[in-house]
Amino acid sequence: MTETDLIGIDLAAMPMLRGLPDVVLAALAALAEPLEVSAGTVLCREGDAPEALHLLLSGQVSLLARAADGSTAVVEVVRPGGRFILAAVLTGRAYLMTAQAAAPARLLRLPAAELHTLAGARPALGMALARAVAGDFRAMVLQVRDLKLRSLPQRLAYYLLQLAPAETMPPVAVRLPFDKALLAARLGCRPANLSRAFAALRALGVETHGARVVLHDPARLQDFAAPDLATDADAVGAPGDQ
Amino acid sequence: MTETDLIGIDLAAMPMLRGLPDVVLAALAALAEPLEVSAGTVLCREGDAPEALHLLLSGQVSLLARAADGSTAVVEVVRPGGRFILAAVLTGRAYLMTAQAAAPARLLRLPAAELHTLAGARPALGMALARAVAGDFRAMVLQVRDLKLRSLPQRLAYYLLQLAPAETMPPVAVRLPFDKALLAARLGCRPANLSRAFAALRALGVETHGARVVLHDPARLQDFAAPDLATDADAVGAPGDQ
DNA sequence: GAGGAGCGTTGATGTGGATCAAGCCAGAGG
DNA sequence: CCTCTGGCTTGATCCACATCAACGCTCCTC
Questions:
Q1: Which of A16, A136, B1, B101 has the fewest CB atoms within 10 Å, measured from its CB?
Q2: pLDDT at A202
């Protein structure tokens, strides 16, 4: 098997590319550059011109915005199957966020110019890209809603529910995908307050042992998280949909 | 001139459709249904299945999310040249937000199914849609960043700067596009606190007379709003880029 | 097994914004 | 002209979260 074949397998497994004709996948495989980085590596910096779409095969990448005073906000944590810099590539405008590996990561880079050309020639790819950004947009909308109308414990409850596989019987076991400092940043608070939020949820049947979390009463938790979870099957946590 | 010709003129003026071949514009004009509504009209409700892309010709539409307790958050206020429900149409998933006219509005509706078909056949349209959602995504990213790392007066300062035409000499006059209650909701605070935020900016050369606002020292304001405005030429306020 | 480093929790205190409520002002209607 | 109404501002108080700091724990090294 050639290297390109191997890349083709990785690409076919990306949720955003599911269902694309083999010709397109092959063309993408020919463009893709594999990349392996250690934790802490900066993959792109806010303000720079967009060069390549990044697809995450394994590991975690956090997307953050920096303030003038040096403080940073984690806008999203990308998980395997996810992508980043898609919007910048499509609009051709500078990155709004800095991408930094939060753990050792394997990725594929698809150069912007070639991707553009290919998408122009292949409507199916263009639509796949459109659907993908649309998914990213929806995740951001959910986050804005979260920030504007939920308290921190509610946001945490909501986040935990997203991690739980749907349709499991009551004592649901969940594993936090990354350490609490990063989770705090993603939820928009300090580690100290995340700790307090976990403590507050204890009364609602949430038990924590390090990264292991057990939800004894998801229904009650859902009720506590308030805003109609009806529309949220959509979950940010679903790989490839964030 | 037929009605379709008139619609064609409106469509050609939409920023998101700029540069599309006339054939595509004509096809869109044939699909488009004009719509005129009074203030307060609900155009779609969160949770419903996506039916049509909405383009706003004039007036204002607020996109809001409702909490279980009845409180609502305004996620975005769409201004003329903007669109909404694009992401839901592309993903085929339920609306995440309720759209309600904040002022009398004229719109065009493009039915989802037909739009899909057309975009599949016309790569240029598919890419235009992708670019448009990408722009919407970026606006949401900026808002998340805002909420996570700016204080209310800073968010207000940033918002005012976006309203100001770039490259104007110091005493910049700005008109608030909608009343202060709605502005407060969009910024994620209560009217009472918006008032205090305006009061705080008075010391930075911001003078208010109802909806008229004068920025005496934009540079200082920009400095106060902190996070590097470098990447923000992108402005949420730019019509069609929201 | 002793020491140290890093994450996580807990406590004490400060602050931004919410909340509740009273006043202000302009425009509409009598 | 007076009154009523609704949007805006201001004041007093409260609460969620930030901040600063101490402490406990686990893992890692020596």
A1: B1
A2: 93
